Structures are given as C-alpha cells and as structure tokens.
Automatic annotation (TrEMBL):
Pathway: Cofactor biosynthesis; biotin biosynthesis; biotin from 7,8-diaminononanoate: step 1/2. The keyword Cytoplasm applies. SUPFAM superfamilies: P-loop containing nucleoside triphosphate hydrolases (SSF52540), S-adenosyl-L-methionine-dependent methyltransferases (SSF53335). Coiled coil: none annotated. The gene is bioD. GO terms for molecular function: ATP binding; dethiobiotin synthase activity; magnesium ion binding. It is an enzyme of class 6 (ligase). InterPro entries: DTB_synth_BioD, Methyltransf_12, P-loop_NTPase, SAM-dependent_MTases_sf. It is found in: Cytoplasm. The active site is at K287. ATP binds at G267, V268, G269, K270, T271, L272, E355, G356, A357, G358, P442, A443, L444. This is ATP-dependent dethiobiotin synthetase BioD.
Amino acid sequence: MTDPQHRERIRRSFDRAEGYDGAATLQRLAAHSLAARLVRALDGRKPTRILEIGCGTGLLTELLARNWPEAQIVATDFAPQMLERASRRAIPRTEFKLMDAANPTVEGPFDVVCGNLVMQWLEQPAQVMERLGGLLAPGGVLAVSTLLDGTFAEWKAACASEGVQPATPHYPQAGQIQAWTPWLFAGLWESESCVQAFGSGLEFVRHLKATGASVPQAGRKPMGAVALRRVARRLDHSGAAITWQLAYGCFRKPPVAGVFVTGTDTGVGKTLVSACLVRRWQAIYWKPLQSGLADEAGDTSTVAHLAQGAECLPPAGAFQASLSPQAAAEAEGAHVSRAQLALPEVEDGRLLVVEGAGGVMVPATDELMMLDLAAIWGLPVVLVARSGLGTLNHTLLSLQALRSRGVAVAGVVLNGPPNPANRRTIAQLGKVRILAEVGHMPALSPASVAEAAATFPAWEAVCTRP
C-alpha cells in the first residue's frame, strides 16, 4: 500500500467495521483452513513464538492460541480499532501491537509467521514475504492466505451487464503468487473456491462494508447509488451468490544452511559435484544412505579425499549390494528408520551438503523415496544432470517432480562436455538457474576438484534470488 491516501482509506474502513465478527463468515472459514494447514506444516513441532500479521479482530489469533497454548503470540494489525476489538477476546499469552505488515517493526526470530487474507491488500507482496521470512528461525513456517482473481466474479458480471465499471480491487492471478514464495523456502500454494449465498445483492454490498472491504481500488471512485442499486438487482436475478477464490501458502525456511544434492540418474556426477560444493563452501558432507560398498570404497571416503580437509559425517545406513538403498538394506535384513535420517545438527556459520542416492524417484527406505526425504528435510536442491543427449527429458521431469512436492530448487549443475543448446533449454523451460558446468576431467584429483570448485558460485550468491 504505497499510496498514502488509499492506505488511509483502507485503515479507516477496517476501523469502522464494528460488525466485522458477525459478517466475517468467509474470513472465519479461511482462518480455520489456514490454521489446519499450519498444523500439518509443523508436523508435530510446537512453536514457542508466533507472529501474526493483519490479525483483525483475532479470528486466527484464537485458533493459534488454542492449537499452541504455550506459545507467545505477537498479533499485529495496522488498524488500531481492529486491534482494540481483538484485545477484548483476552487471548492468553498474546501481545497486540500496532504494525503495518509491509514494514515489520518486531524482532525475530519467530517459529511461525502467519496472516489470514492480508496479502491481497499489499502492493509489494513478494517483497513483504521475503521480509517476513527473514524473521523466521531455521525451520520456521510462513503461512498466509490471499484472495485470487475470480473473486466476486458474479458481481463483476452483473456490473458488465449493466454497463458499469466495477470498483472492486484487482486480486492476483494464481500464476502470479508463485513469485511470492520466499527464495529457497520449501512449500506450495493451494487454492480453493467458496460460494457464499446472500439474501440479495444489497446484502452483499452491506457485507463488504461490515467487513471493511468496501474500499474501491486505488484511483477509482465508489459506484454511485443509482448504479449500485441496478447492479444489485442484476445480481438478485442470478441468485445473489458470490464466489470467493482463495489461496493458501505454507513455506518452511531451511532448517540448516546448505543443500541437498540429487541427480537425474545414478552415476550422473552427484559425488563430484558434492565434492566441489564442499570444497567451495568449506561445508560439512553427509551421505545418509550408501550402497554398493562391495564394489567401491563409498562416496564419503571419495569426498573426504577430493575435498581435502572436509568434515564428513558417517552414513545412517551403509550396505554392500549395488542396488537402491531400500533394496540393498532389504538384502541384508536391515532397516533404516525415518528418525535415523533426521538432518544432523550443524554449528552456526557452517554449511551442510547432503548427497542423495540415484535420482529423485529412487526408493530410500520401505516407506520413503528420495523425493520424500527432500520434502522432509526442507533443504534447497542442487540437481545434477548430464549435459548431453537425453538430458532434457530427465532434467525437466526431475524439476517437475521436485516442485510438485514444494521442494525448492537452488539450481542445476550440468556434468559433461559443454552443450549451450541444452543449457539454454533447461534454464528457460525449467525456469531454473544453471549454477555451474563441470567438464570432462582426465584425472580426478583434489587439484582438479579445487579447480572446478572455483567455478561454482559462493553460498551468498546461491541465496540471492536470480
């Protein structure tokens, strides 16, 4: 909300919405839906500090306190009268604070930052999401909801039938909100449609006023009384039902600084790329599942040799057969639990490079694929792909699989002879950054790895949205 006058009109409209709680049927439904998604995203973890933006009269705030009664909640809004109404709920362990979501004035870290139906009011939602993400502790969750384009479609159709230009706000399209996701955060947007029946078109108009949502879009004047009654009657003829299009997003900040290295296939160069990253970033290396030890020394010892001086953590499971980790473990009668595959703790200032086995759809355990582990860990992925013929299908399918699970992709590394056409196609169609290209190495040695590692970006560059 960069227009000060428009911003003030919105603030006054919400402050005057004395009947908000009685009219906010959709807002209450969205609050429950967002809270349920937040519970799933936290997966049993109990937040100790929660920041809520745009708390309004406290619909979501109450649910937060109910779900996590021991958490300290900071509930904020930029409309002082809304805050006053919320404070009357006497929600335990909650501090109410006047704050504009676009310019946070609180200090983190928080385990949860959330806001119900706030983002559509902000003029720079992507930048706000980045700022809010910066207030999260490692592994913290940012959960928001927003209205989408298509909301009030019936009212807009009635306006068109009467030759009247609607003054309702422009809401973002579903494709636009993908760019709001904070960089390298894991998570997905989910959308739903809700239809609310009103007794008449004028009842819908009164509903907007009661909930503080009657402010016309910036630069537009409110509809005149005569035109308003004509449009309301037209809406009556179509049944006086209104559709709301909503989107919910839950995004997790990486629990540690680092990446998960996976590939489009086995033998594609994941270990070489991992060694380069470990060398470039002076990172800690962890290969949680290692198979094929009957035929080779294993990737942990390889990285320890190639990235000389690297700290390498022991695998959670190491098996002899050259099979998928799941099949190799089964052959030995072994079982690796999800608890054994929890990310190791890393001291502040250190980076962690985790190397997977095979590609994203390789079975890791009886219950989990490598893709599942990527989603559980919440680390951004570095995808290693061959540079030559056949890589387009494998790479684009792998990117699609990762994104379908909400896994953040830091970039792709191409391994093999340079292929400008494939590089360009993967970058454009995959909408991904090419982090590096690793050419043929006649002799694999610490010196050759050090030379290749120098071509990889610094960690700070990886953390910067391209």
